[in-house]
Amino acid sequence: xxxxxxxxxxxxxxxxxxxxxxxxxxxxxxxxxxxxxxxxxxxxxxxxxxxxxxxxxxxxxxxxxxxxxxxxxxxxxxxxxxxxxxxxxxxxxxxxxxxxxxxxxxxxxxxxxxxxxxxx
Length: 120
Hints:
Layout: E1 2-3, E2 8-9, H1 11-22, E3 46-51, E4 56-62, H2 63-70, H3 74-84, E5 88-91, E6 94-98, H4 99-111
Antiparallel strand pairs: 1-2, 3-4, 4-6, 5-6
Helix pairs in contact: 2-3
């Protein structure tokens, strides 16, 4: 017999009560999400120039080259640049993106500090 000071239970009664307490009466759904970080090394030619909006020297990359780096179309990247206020300049070879500005916007979106929700 097991005694808790108030009542006495036999081992059979104790096992039955424990079984009842441990029996599943409600099911719960648990969702586990994993974020995968994958390192991909790709190269693109950049040019050093003055970004008017940063008011600083910055590396610029052509829109087509940047789109290839990200594996998207130049049209989709252009839409992201315009909607997200990424700094860019129109050069003789085409549109060039200010890399520090692009990285800052991408970081803000990743950490949830973004002011714009377009394209998310």
